[in-house]
Amino acid sequence: MADTVEFELVAPEELLFSEPVELVVVPGAEGDFGVLPGHSPLISTLRTGVIAVYENDSVNRRIFVSGGFAEVTPERCTVLADEAVALESANRSDVEARVKTDREALESAADDDKESAAAALAVSEALLLALDTAGQA
Where do the structural domains in the chain lie, given as residue ranges? Predict the structure, then answer.
């Protein structure tokens, strides 16, 4: 058995990450799950959260995802994300502006658009929280 698992992260229209890693922890719809080499095959929906990529027994990369799907085989973990943001390269002021814009959009949304606007605000607020949490880790 190999010491690594191939991790691929795909966002709409682009491959963001493709590397062998020791461990990847993914925010599954029913809870976080870790993928090591030799993992049993599975497919899972994702909830909004942070993917943690481990190298040398520690987290070296955190990536916020707003949802999507994960497919796991013994050799590979592929995540198809609705949106993905590397937390180490995210700009806090840009995220704060996004939260403000989404709040304003929700306040001015017509009744039939409120659900979509509320979902967008929830994602941007979760991204801001992930930035705060990543800074403390």
Answer: 5-87, 90-136
